[in-house]
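Handover notes (outgoing to incoming on-call)

Open items:
1. ATP-binding protein: sequence verified, structure written out, both below. Nothing else pending on this one.
2. Nothing else urgent.
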Amino acid sequence: MHEYTSTARVWGLTCPGFPEEVSRARRWTRDILRGSPLAEDAELIVSELSANAILHTASGQQSGSFHLALAVSPQVVALSVTDDGGTGTAPKAEHADQDATHGRGLGMVSAIAHRVVIHDSQAGHTVTAELFTSVRLGGHPC
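ATP-binding protein structure tokens:
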């Protein structure tokens, strides 16, 4: 294969902003990644990002929704969740104290994923978590 081409496959799913849709997002991710050693981590990440979209943005309000994108290539599994925005602040990983009742989710995603990127726009926020299929010790994937 030429070094500038890839064989990435991409899937998308839009879910209404109801809490029960988090399990649907998890199941969808698990079904696509069946047999992959990254499936459990990806399922956990999608679960957390989907729940955050519903709990902390307009996605969880009446007629709200969130969109999932899953891209798989030989080098990386990339999971993105785009919310409906509606908040004055962008998602960020926090270091919550031990008594906090929230604020650990995106930090957990950052600890599991090899890279997390947050994009803000007028329409909402997109959080993308990347899981590299193989990382050399001390090396970078790209």
